[in-house]
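pinned: reference chain
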Amino acid sequence: MFYDELKQYDWDETTAAIASKTSRDVLTALAKEHLSVDDFMALISPAASPFLEQMAQLSHRYTLERFGKTISMYIPMYVSNACTNGCVYCGFNHSNPLTRITLTLDQVKAECEAIRRLGPFENLLIVSGEFPRLNGVDYLEQVLHVARPYFNNLTIEVMPLKERDYYRLTQSGLNGVVCFQETYHEANYKKYHPRGMKSIFEWRVNGFDRMGAAGVHKIGMGVLIGLEDWRTDVTMMARHLQYLRKNYWRTRYSINFPRMCPAEGGYQPKVVMSDRELAQLTFAFRIFDHDVDISYSTREAPAFRANMMKLGVTSMSAGSKTEPGGYVSTPDALEQFEVTDSRTPLQVADEIKALGYEPVWKDWDKIFD
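pinned: its structure tokens
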């Protein structure tokens, strides 16, 4: 499993290697059709900052070749904020005094119907806190059964599961799984995740192997920008993606780079990433992996999302509510994170069309892959 491979990479040595990259290393990487992780490190390094325009053009070219002028649309549906974890940066932290909600199946049905009224979404991301007794595999399977008549593509972002449980859910309509490793810095990982199953680094990082072995159609991965040095973290993720492609080559992959915001409980991001740096990272990942789906959520501002849509991003959420029951009513529950792009899905779709792109509401069916 990947944990065993990850141990061969030293965090501090990787950080130093990125910092040592030169303009010549960047030009060498930009001249290649297929990049190594070492080339990727050059493109995310400070040395690459003067080459942002060249990177943007190359990223744009590869994106058009692989995806055309399309943006895949998806929407999250939060079904539970009950959580046993103590993640210091998350609004769902077990210690935070907030109303805990786990939707009933009737409420899930009502949320699905409300989402369908917002726009012709077919890609639904089902999100839940990590509380096995309340929102475990049995509950998730029931939610999938309720949601399937409304949506053609169902993805979950929940606690890491056993391989047999992932397989069981694929037999109940599951298409994809999103899981954020949060950070690959094992020594500091426990500091951010002091309690709950999420505190077990090896269990989480090996979860992607379990997804692949279970035959999950699409795997989404990402790190939280703000916990540790972002350049080192995304390099570890690039290594992880390369490993997964080699071992689970039938699976499709997506990546996301959410920038952390201050959270309930007083958390402040350790690292702040600028728009320019996020653009550099996006371009670098597209040049490194021409086929990976790069997703931006409603954490990002409308103008920035519009600019990046033409340069590497291939999927976006729209109309997001990040609290359980948020599409039917305005519940008392705390949002997991603050939404920056609060436009309606149809407003986002209109902007996509105005920029000469096509919003795609339905993903490819698995049978066509």
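why pinned: The mean pLDDT is 93. The chain is about 40% helix and 15% strand.
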